[in-house]
Each structure stands twice: as C-alpha cells, then as structure tokens.
Amino acid sequence: MPPSIQAPSAVVMVRPHHFHPNPETAGDNSFQARTTGLAADDIARHAFAEVTAAAAALQGAGVRVHLFDDRGERHTPDAVFPNNWFSTHAGGHVAIYPMCAENRRRERRSDVIELLKAEYRVQDVIDYSGLEADGMFLEGTGAMVLDHIHRIAYTAQSNRADPVALERFCTHFNYEPMAFATADTEGRACYHTNVMLCVGTDFALGGFDLITDPARRHAVRARLRETGRELVELSPWQIGEFAGNALELQGSQGRVLAMSTRAAASLSPAQRAVINRSATLLPLAVPTIELAGGSVRCMLAGIHLARRDIFQAKNAVTA
C-alpha cells in the first residue's frame, strides 16, 4: 500500500526515569489508577523497561523512533506522553500546546524541537502555551484526534480542550473543528479524545456511544464515513481497555496499528479483520504506563514532517 499522510513513519518517545501516576491529573482522568499496590521504585523501573521495549518493537517494524530520556526530574511524571505538548504537520509546521496540570508544563523541552529542526524541514513553530495564563488549555493530539488527510480535528469537550484554543489551532492549521460532548457509564467526560477515538487511513476505531447527543453522534459517524473510513465500534468496556488509544504508523513493510497488548486482546475477530485489511496490529506491552491513564497512542508523538536530504543521504551511505 502507498504511504499515507495519516500514518507517520517516525515518532518521538520519552523514556521515563521517575514515572508514577500523576496526582495533578487524577481529578478528571477516570482511566488513571488511584492505587497501584507497587513500590515507587518498582513502578519507575517497569515503566522504563516498557518504553525501552516498545521503542525497540517499533524500530523492528521499520518505524523511526527518536527516543529521549526524561531529565530525571521527579516532578514530570507524565513526560512519557509527549504527544500532549507538541504536534507536527505536513508543510513544516509545529505546534506547542497549553497544558492544564502545572507539572505537565515542565515537559516542554527545547531539545526535542531542536531535533525536529535539525533532522526535518520545519518552517514555523506556533506556540500556544501562553494561553495557560488565561486558563485556556488544548492538550495536543490527546485533546484532538486529527484527520490529517481531510483536515478535521475531532475533539471531545473537556477542560483540556478549550473551545477558543481549538478555534485558534484550527484557523492557523486549516482544520475543521468537530467538537462533541462525551460521558462514560458513570457520567464522566473523556478527559482526552484519543482514549475513545483513533482515525486511521481506511478505518476509525471509536467509542461513539460515549457521544452524548444523538444528533452529534450521528454527525461524527457520518463525517468519518464520508471520508472513506470503515467504522469499528468499540464498547465502553473496550474503551476502558484502551482499545481507542491507538496510532497508525508507516513501517518498512506497510502500515501498522500500534496499541497496547491489553487493548489488542479486547478486540473481536471481526474488528481485527477490519484493521488487518489495511494495517498490521502491533501490540506493545505497557501495563505500568497504563496506570497513569494513558496508553500507547499517548506515548507516541507522530512526525508529519519531511526529512532533510542530508540525513537521507547519510542513511543511504551507512545502510
């Protein structure tokens, strides 16, 4: 299958040294474990090993992984989820986002942006982080699930997806905003859209029944079908197993769908068949990371930028 702009061939990952569920995000993240029963050092050690193994598995599938280590700071427990503070876009554009939790604002780091500028063609960086002072937040491709092909920003309404910030992003980056309210079986809103929706090139996995307004639910389904996607309907239980938290990537042998082993185990044979028609499932074991309320998609910041020729030439010589 030809490459798709929906499926990046490279990602940024951050390997944590002091990982633990973040108390500053527990208030609105119903996916986050309240207790773990594990010692802090054990949690940190397991998380470090899980990210190391996940990065190796992605590289084995032919995905380019830029693996950064966190800076050993105990006050950035969610550094493993870099997709929330920046995103990249075709044409050389980068966005930096305003984060809701104060300790998550410390995750932004200049060396990641400098790496992107050095190895990829970056034309501009638009920094929305100043909106934090006004109490407006938009947590990247956690808050928005982007259709890069048809330029639609699917967004579950929450305090991590301010409508003014969303409108500014969509105006700057030429996306159509498609926002909707959600609620789980206990009436709690999804804190991030990417826990209940994954948009691939030819399919979309979604917990559409979590969209509270029937008309809006129909509109979201219809919009996805209009763009040629086959819908994989996920149950509330499957959403709780992180089946919606997946990312389609371009590997050396075709597209892969990265998700956790827990998420993959929740899929039915029929759901797997839809995915397998255009992508190969790539399950990654991240049970410790999932204690923080995020899974594989949250760990991957996709790079939708053109690589600089100097690096392409260098790789061609050393391959």
TrEMBL record:
Annotated source species: Acidovorax kalamii
SUPFAM superfamilies: Pentein
Pfam family, one: DDAH_eukar
GO molecular function ontology, one term from the record: transferase activity
NCBIfam families: citrull_CtlX (NF046062)
Keyword annotations of the record: Transferase
Protein's recorded name: Amidinotransferase
Entries under InterPro entries matching the protein: Amdntrnsf_FN0238 (IPR014541)
